[in-house]
Amino acid sequence: EMMGEVERFDDLYDQTASKTEQLALCSFIRDDHIYRQIKRLRKVYQLKRGLLKDILESLAKDLPDAEVLSGESGTEMLIRGSGAALEVVLEKTKGLNVSCKELSADDQGKTTALLFSCGVIESSALQELKEACDLL
User: Fold this and answer.
1) Residue 98 CB neighbour total at 10 angstroms
2) I need a labelling partner for 127 at 20 to 30 A (CA). Which of 4, 44, 85, 93 fits?
3) How many Å apart are CA 49 and CA 70, to the nearest integer?
4) What would the pLDDT profile of 90-133 be if each residue is shown by its tens digit?
5) Whole-model pTM?
6) 55 in Cβ contact with 133 (< 8 Å)
7) Residues 6+ apart with CB under 8 A from 118
8) What is the rounded CA–CA span in Å between residue 89 and residue 87?
């Protein structure tokens, strides 16, 4: 009975990791290297998030109707405001290595909310991003 179930789903399963890769991952996890990696990545993303927040808040303070919204964690932040204010934000962040997506627009098609993500920032670019933040 169980073999029938396995055969039914056989076409859906594609083994993409070699035995060697699986054994290496097993050792990585078993030897607690994964916890050091998680701790290191938390620090990196905390730095990225702080820089993005500093940049967006710096831009928003000069724009009376722009507001930065962010949760306690994560790599994304939302900035809301009028179309004119967000055009300024888009122009000033154009050269930075951050991801930006338009989330909503008003009746005239002007952007009212932008979602920024610092997840795409390379760790090697953090210093460059910090310097760019200081220039804004």
Assistant:
1) 22
2) 85
3) 10
4) 888 877 777 888 887 777 777 788 888 877 766 666 666 666 66
5) 0.65
6) yes
7) 45, 48, 49, 51, 52, 75, 76, 77, 98, 99
8) 5
